[in-house]
Structure formats: structure tokens, C-alpha cells
What we know:
Helices cover 41% and strands 10% of the residues. It is mainly alpha-helical. It folds into two domains: 1-46 and 67-127, no CATH class; 130-168, no CATH class.
Amino acid sequence: xxxxxxxxxxxxxxxxxxxxxxxxxxxxxxxxxxxxxxxxxxxxxxxxxxxxxxxxxxxxxxxxxxxxxxxxxxxxxxxxxxxxxxxxxxxxxxxxxxxxxxxxxxxxxxxxxxxxxxxxxxxxxxxxxxxxxxxxxxxxxxxxxxxxxxxxxxxxxxxxxxxxxxxxxxxxxxxxxxxxxxxxxxxxxxxxxxxxxx
Length: 198
């Protein structure tokens, strides 16, 4: 989980590096996907094991099942889908400074289309603010502070009225495949090595 948080921090930091705008779009998509993966890891509850009924006295609470690696495997599998459809890992691991802007832009279109397909297939992503960008929004007392990043003339308490600069995004539902770890307990590959046998 620490590694995932570090990767997310690096991706966000990379958006400040002067690169073609197409690359910034891909990095933005990656930051959203890694944020979702990190959220899944943080809020996943361990599943409880069923206890056998013996008929002798009240049952004690079921002990938590060890799920080490399962959530991480699901995150890796999700990144693997982004690699398979959009070649995301190939794009991020390549040194794009060797290519001109036109080549990077052309590859970015493939990454965008493939990753968007995976995103829409497995996540329902909706705007946080009900008002279009540039519109006026009033936040009532008791609004969910984590959903809004306020700037400007701050002071006092809600209600706050301001202009929506960005609508924000949230995941309304998530449909990730459940991953069962292999017998050796190892995590799945992001993408298997492809070998042509002679």
C-alpha cells in the first residue's frame, strides 16, 4: 500500500513537469485510477470466516481471515487490464523524451481510448458538483468537507457560495473482478512476458 501511495504521489508530481498536454491527460487518468486503487485498499474490510456450529454454547465472533495480498492482487489485476487494453504500463515505463511530440500524441490517443474503456467497464464515475464548471454553487452547513476544495475569501462557517472551477469526480459503484492468489502466494503479473517459441 505504501508503494501504491508513493507511485500516486510521483504521478501527481509529474503533472508539473513540462511535457506535451497529451501526456498530462494520461498522467491525470493514471492519478485517478491509482487514487481509486488506494481507496479500495484503505477501506477494504477483511472477510470473516464461518465457524462450525457445534451446538455447545453461544458462538464467539468469527476471527478475521488473513487476506494479505488479495487487495493488492486486485489492484495489480486492474492495472493489468489498463495495460492490456491501453498499454498504460508500456507508456509510463518508456522514456518519452526520446520521441517527438507527434509520436507521443499518437500513442497517448491509444492509451486514452483503451484505459477509458476499462474505466467505464469497471467503475461508475460521476461528477461531485451538480453545477457545471463556471456556474455558482452554494455549500450548505454540514456539507461533506472532503468532497470540496475551497479557495478564495475563506472565513466564517457555511453556507459558502462560489464559482465551480472543477466539478470533481467520485466513484458511484465499482465492479472489480475478485482475484484468487495462486498456490505459491505470489502476486499476479501486470502483464505476462510474451515469448514466441521457435
